[in-house]
Structure formats: structure tokens, C-alpha cells
Design brief:
The protein is mainly α. It has nine helices and no strands.
Length: 207
């Protein structure tokens, strides 16, 4: 995206339309989307909603995301927001004539939240912080489900997420993008296990 100058907002709407069309196609035309939800899944969904509300309550009394590192992530998100894409430099915040030495996935999503939702950037990075740790629980659950039943998977995911000092300790110093990256690694591993019997090409793409 640094070389193909597509505004983030346009990219968001195009990808959203493509995803919606894909679901619509397989739901009503191909009729291959057969989703059955039993009471166990309902309980799991309720647990995830509680986890989301918990992280929301943690962030509710904060104005900005905690940690010195989050000041850097926030000003990078602000630069992306102002450009509606990847800027060419860190100016006017820093006298650096290039941009992109640091991975900007977390910051890009934060900027997109501000662009779409008309939210100040310092608030969107706070929202992304809460979402990141909720997403971490989801990805852990998705990975554990490749090996265990729902109850073992959700219990292990909650223990890993809340019982120890990590990953929650990352919130205090602002290492939230690291947890987001780790979440995608875990999700990628679960997808590899999901597709390993179906498509070697899918494993190659995910890797």
C-alpha cells in the first residue's frame, strides 16, 4: 500500500463489499454456508461477550492508552490518519524523511477506526488496545479447538489470558501491537491445522 496509493477508507469499503458479496454468494446462491448453533456455542458466545465487556470496563475510565510506547503508536496512527494512507515521512512530528521502518498494522487499524467512525486518534488507539486482548482470547480459543472440546479450549484460553502477569502486563507499558501480532500468529497456526487435510496450497499461502 505504500506504492499503490489507495486511500484507506476506499480500501475498507471495497474489502467490506467483497466479503459481504462472498458470504451472500455462498449463503443464497451456492447454499454451502450451513451454520448450526447449539446451546454449547451459545454459552461460548456469552462468555466471549463477557470478556469483551470486561476489557471495555478496563478501558472505560482511561482517556488514552497506557504506556510510553503507546505515545509512539498513537502519533504514527495520527500520521496515517492525516494521510488516509501511508505517509512519506514522519514530518511534522519528527524530522525523519522516510516512513515505514516500524510495522504499522496496529496503527493502521487505529487510524481506520478514526477515519470511519470520526473518533479522535488517541481514542481509537485505546479502543484497539481493548480489542487486541479480546482478539487474543478468540485466537487462543480457535487454536485450542483444533485439539480439544469447547470447554477445555475456553477454559485454557481464559487462564492463559487472565491468570498470569502476561499478556495483561503489556497494557501497562504499551506493547499492545506485539500482542496483536502474536494473536495473528496463533490464528495462522489454527488455520494451518484447519486446512492441512484440504489444501497444501492454502497452507503455503497462510505461511
Amino acid at each position: 500500500l505504500r506504492f499503490i496509493k489507495i486511500p484507506f477508507t476506499i480500501l475498507f469499503y471495497v474489502v467490506s463489499a467483497a466479503c459481504f458479496s462472498y458470504v451472500l454468494y455462498y449463503s443464497y446462491i451456492k447454499k454451502n454456508l450451513n451454520i448450526k448453533i447449539n446451546y454449547k456455542e451459545v454459552i461460548i458466545i456469552v462468555i466471549f461477550i463477557i470478556v469483551l465487556l470486561l476489557y471495555t470496563s478496563i478501558m472505560r475510565n482511561q482517556i488514552v492508552a497506557a504506556g510510553a510506547d503507546m505515545s509512539m503508536h498513537t502519533y504514527i496512527a495520527r500520521l496515517i490518519y492525516e494521510e488516509n494512507g501511508f505517509p512519506l515521512s514522519y514530518k511534522p512530528i519528527l524530522p525523519i524523511n522516510h516512513f515505514g521502518a516500524y510495522n504499522t498494522g496496529f496503527q493502521s487499524i487505529s487510524a481506520l477506526i478514526s477515519l470511519i467512525g470520526n473518533v479522535p486518534v488517541y481514542r481509537s488507539t485505546l479502543l484497539m488496545t481493548g480489542f487486541t486482548y479480546f482478539f487474543f482470547v478468540l485466537c487462543l480459543y480457535a487454536f485450542m479447538r483444533r485439539f480439544y472440546n469447547q470447554w477445555v479450549s475456553i477454559t485454557a484460553s481464559l487462564i492463559i489470558s487472565f491468570a498470569g502477569s502476561q499478556p495483561m502486563g503489556y497494557i501497562s507499558w504499551g506493547g499492545n501491537p506485539t500482542i496483536l501480532s502474536l494473536s495473528f500468529v496463533i490464528l495462522g497456526l489454527s488455520l494451518i491445522y484447519l486446512f492441512k487435510e484440504k489444501s497444501k496450497f492454502a497452507i503455503l499461502i497462510i505461511s
